[in-house]
Sequence to fold (695 residues):
Amino acid sequence: MSFPRVLAVAKKEVVQILRDSRSLLIVVIMPVTLMLLFGYGVSLDLKGLPVYVYDQDGNQQSQDLLKRFQNSEYFKVVSVVDGYPAMTRALDDGRAKMGIVIPWDFSQRLRDGGPVQVQALVDASDDNTANVLIGYAQAVVQGYSAEIQLNWLRERGQSVQPAPVSIETRTWYNEDLESSAFIIPGVLALVMSVIGAFLTSLTIAREWERGSMEQLISTPVSAMEIMLGKLTPYFILGMFDVLVCAVIAIYWFHVPFRGSALTLLFSSALFLVVVLSLGFFISVVAKNQFAASQIALLITFLPAFLLSGFLFSIEQMPIALQWITRIFPARYYVSLLKQVFLKGTPTALLYADLIPLAVFALVLALLATRSFHKRLE
Amino acid sequence: MPEPEYSVAVENLVKRFGDFVAVNQLNLKVRKGEVFGFLGPNGAGKSTTIRMLCGLLKPTSGHALVAGYDVARKPEAVRQNIGYMSQKFSLYNDLKVIENIRLFAGLYSVPSKDLQGRIEWALAMANLKGQENLITGTLPGGWKQRLALGCAVLHKPPIIFLDEPTSGVDPISRRQFWDLIHQMAEEGVTVFVTTHYMEEAEYCNRLALIFRGKMVALGTPSELKRDSMKGELLLIECEPLGKAVEALQSAPDVMDAAVFGNALHLVVLDVATAIPRMWKYLADQGIAIGRIEKIRPSLEDVFVSLTAAREAGQEYKV
Fold:
């Protein structure tokens, strides 16, 4: 192994990256864009859902109930209509997620002490949102009912304790229940996949396509030296992007950072070795920029997106799928990221993720070295 | 290691890609300081051979020693001793001239005390002094080729392999390129060069004609022209050419007839008897004849006659 030769290859690679606006764009703009996209654009929180109201009664009591909806942060009464057709149209074209209809005899029946039903029309095209909405609506109405019952009893001179049993919650790790705190750390896995696998698979396949690889391997430079020289600049860029993303996460999105910076850097370095090796291996096998980059995205970016617990919790996946996630290194990296940001788990407890990640890094790095020969066949 | 007798020694070299035999039982020896040409049409197996000699392809069978090292077993030792220019321009187009030179100096481990001198030398040779900071991709073809040659010999290798180094280069640049090659040969460098340009082949000390993976002739250009043709060559000036060539292809005694410029080249077994017969034959066909005379064959004639014989399935000793 000759260090000057590795350096010669690495220098050339750096000059090429700096001179190619596309790769610079990917290195600098892509991490920031992804951070902002997922920080602002993707929210799993349901807040301020648009509600249409059709109040047939129009009495003091129906107004009380509607005020409760209005005051809940989950709903926003955007319009009061005076008939079903207007409400149906609003639900049809998505202006409303829910329509509340209060019957004409609402206050009358309440005065009589009889049961009364309030109608909720829910857009269930997204079943998840619909379920959450129904839950919230029930909570609002139950709160209102409980108050009426209490008042009724009090009026009859009975002393009652409001809500005999209640639950007192403490939310740990993500105290404000912000989904952005859950999502943002995982964005790092996406960024690393693009830098590591996508970008490197392109640069190496390009050498095969343009014929420069043939010239390169006709010199005394060894296969290992070519690999190290080509991958080191991307490793450094990847680590740079880790810092960029961490700074955005912590100072812009105020995601808590409770673990150690060292753990973050070490696990990111391991994951980078994984994706760089994969990118290198793919491009050696494919030898074609288009095929290599597509395969790279398919086996790194996509699993990092779908099967890593980044957006979709692994515990809630079907058992078979949970097992499948284990063969994708992104799963361990995302888990490490969430712990290092939100939980600050001591390093000893992180071994469950660090060890598999390290094994992947080692095996894939070996595979990459083995796959590359200084021959044209 | 003692200096090997030959710079390149090839014995029964075979390369097969599946069912296709790209190089078939090749035998040749190249002496130190020789400019050795490898002449043949596209697809004849020239690049495949040169790639095997550079250790880039593994021979299917047979042996090849380059600088005394077996290309299959010691490809790294071979690479220390060679410079290689592939057929396709393969320096980095997005690097500056000087960046390409520095890259290859680094890859060939040119010692730092020699570095500046070698860079100057390469720039002077490629005629690129003062143009160090140009982006390589913007250079004209001839300059690119000279730069590629400069990069391939930064480490002063004893043997250089050039695969069609002048394809797509204008005639003046081609001429300059060959001057460089001869300069290096005079300094004792062995040059192994492939080409499909006949006029370039004349610049070589020795030539191997290769066709469909097989060597069909080997010798100096003049030896080839003197000895390799079966039959003798006649030049016929006549009108109309098209009709004449058609008539002659089926004429008795004629082995081959082809249009060369505004005349015909005719391969016949014996000139003395053929000339009077041709006069008569063509006149009978109503063709106007200017002159008929015996000429010395060019390399192209030799090549055409040898490959035509192969095509027809005849084999004869050279």
